[in-house]
Amino acid sequence: MPNTEKFTYPSIQKILVHPELSATQKIEKLKLQLEDERAVQRAASESNMIEEEGQGSRMRELEIALDALDAEVTSCQDTKAATL
Fold this sequence. Notes:
84 residues; mainly alpha; 4 helices; 60% helix; elongated
């Protein structure tokens, strides 16, 4: 299990230390959160109405947590077509 002290977001910590979740279930939950964060970041980049501050750090923590669980993380640049 990864050292959860380095994670500042409680939702990430709760998933990592949840005793009833398998590693696969933890990975699934973290990936869902990562997808949500990417969507928020995309929306923030398209609108000046949404605060972007802190979004990158949460995404980074999710990526670190997934890496600690040996999960395959695909970059959004690897899966999305370019838009103009």
